[in-house]
Amino acid sequence: MAKPFKIITVRQLGGIGDCLMLTPVFRGLREKYPKATICHVTGNTYLGGALMDVFSHVPKGFIDEIHPFEPWDAAPLRTREVWANYYGQSPPIEEDLWWKKADLHYDLNVPCVDYEWPAMHSPEGICKSRTQVWCDFAEVKPSSLKPMYEVRPEERKQALQLFESRGWDPAKVIGLGATACDKKRAVGIGKLESICASLKDAGYIPVIIDPTFNLEGYGALNGQRLRDLMAAISLMRVMISVDSGALHMAGTLGVPVVGIFGPTDYRYRMDQYLGSAVDSRQLTDCAPCWYGYQCTKQDSRRPAFDCLNKIPARMIVDQALMWADEGYRQSHRSKRPDLIQLPVYNS
Fold first, then answer.
1. What is the C-alpha to C-alpha distance for residues 13 and 10, in angstroms, rounded to an integer?
2. Residue 77 has what pLDDT?
3. How far apart are CA 231 and CA 242, in angstroms?
4. For residue 88, what pLDDT is reported?
5. What is the CA angle 317-245-225, rounded to 5?
6. In the prediction, which pLDDT does 339 show?
7. Which stretches of the chain are assigned E, i.e. beta strand?
8. Under a CB-based contact definition with an 8 Å cutoff, are residues 8 and 99 in contact?
9. DSSP letter string, 51-112
10. Which stretches in the chain have pLDDT values below 50?
11. C-alpha to C-alpha distance for 333 and 274, rounded to whole angstroms
C-alpha cells in the first residue's frame, strides 16, 4: 500500500485580500497532486477569525484539513522574521515544527514580501500579480487563477434578512470600500461624500464597508464577521473600492468592481475580477509608486497622495453606474471569466 502523501501550507498573517488571492494555490496543488492530503495552517484570532472564514469557505475538495495556529505558536523562520519586522518581537517558537514533517510544505506568508520589495527598486519593477507569485512559489500552474470562496446558503439567507431589515434592495446597493489597512490608499472624506451623493441621486443605495467608519446619512456595514460580510457583499450590485480587502472580496464573489488605484497598479491586483479600474497613471507621473510614497517625504515638491486626489469623483460614479446597468453587465461578461479585459478609465 502506497504511503499517504501529505502537503501542508501555512498562512497565518493577514490581510484578507492576500488570503483570497492565494486560494488558487489550492486548486493548483489538487490538480498536481490529486490523491494528496492537503492541510492548511492558519490563524484563528486575526480580525475575529477572518482567516479561518476565508480558508474554510474554499470550495470542497481543495483543502482536506485546516489547523489553527497563531504566528507566535507555530510558524516558519522566515515568517517570524517578517512578523518581527512589522509587528514587533514574539515569544520564542520551537524549532522542530510538526508541519515540517509533511512530504511537502509551503510557507505562504512571505513569498510576496520576498518578491515585491526587491522588485520595487529594480528596473523591471513589479510585473507579477500576487496570485502568480504564490503559484510560482508552490510550483503549480492551476487551470484558473480566479480566487475561490463559497458563500453558504444559510449565510446568504441571513444576509438577505439583514438587507430586508434595513430596507435595502440588493439590486440597488453599491458598496464602498474607501479605506485600507494602509491608510495611504484611502479615499478622502470629501470625495467619498460626493460619490455617495451622486449614487443616491441616481437611485442607488451607497453602503460603506468598513470595520468602524460611518458616513452620516448613508448605510454602513460595520463590525461584521468576515463570512457575514462576504455573504452581504455577494448580494450587492457593484463594489467601488480602493486596493483593499473589499475590492478582493467582491471580485472573488463575481460582483463587478470599480477599483480606485493610485500607489498600486490595477493590472497586478484586478486581473481576475469583473469590472474596471479608475487608474491614475495618466493623471500623475509618479503612479504607481508601489509603497514608495515619495510625496510624503519632507523634501517632496508634490502634493501628498496626488495620484488619488486627482481622480474625479464623477469618473468613479460613471463607472459604477455603467456596471450597475444590466445590459452593460451582460455585454461585458467574458466567455472566459478568468481572462476579463479591464477597461481603464483615465482623463
1. 9
2. 66
3. 20
4. 58
5. 115
6. 37
7. 6-11, 37-42, 65-68, 104-107, 173-177, 205-209, 219-221, 238-242, 257-261, 275-279, 344-345
8. yes
9. HHHHHHTSPTTS-SEEEE--TTTS--HHHHHHHHHHH-------SS-GGGGSSEEEETTSHH
10. 1, 91-96, 335-341, 346-347
11. 7
Report the pLDDT value the prediction gives residue 239, as an integer from 0 to 100: 97
Position of cell 518581537? 89
Q: Going from the N-terminus, what domains does the chain have, and what CATH number goes with each?
A: 7-137 (3.40.50), 155-342 (3.40.50.2000)
pLDDT at 183 (0 to 100)? 75
> What does the alpha-carbon distance between residue 138 and residue 136 come to, in Å, rounded to a whole number?
5
Amino acid at 77: L
Rounded to the nearest 10°, the torsion over CA 116, 121, 124, 128 is 10
Q: Is the peptide bond before 15 cis (omega within 30 degrees of 0)?
A: yes
The CA–CA distances, whole Å, from 206 to 47, 160, 195, 341 equal 24, 17, 9, 26
Single-letter amino acid, residue 192 = L
Burial code of 217-239, b = ≥16 C-beta within 10 A, e = fewer? Answer: ebbbbeebebbbbbbbbbbbbbb
pLDDT at 332: 77
**Residue 228 has which C-alpha cell?**
457575514
User: How much is the pLDDT for 96?
Assistant: 47
pTM of the model: 0.88
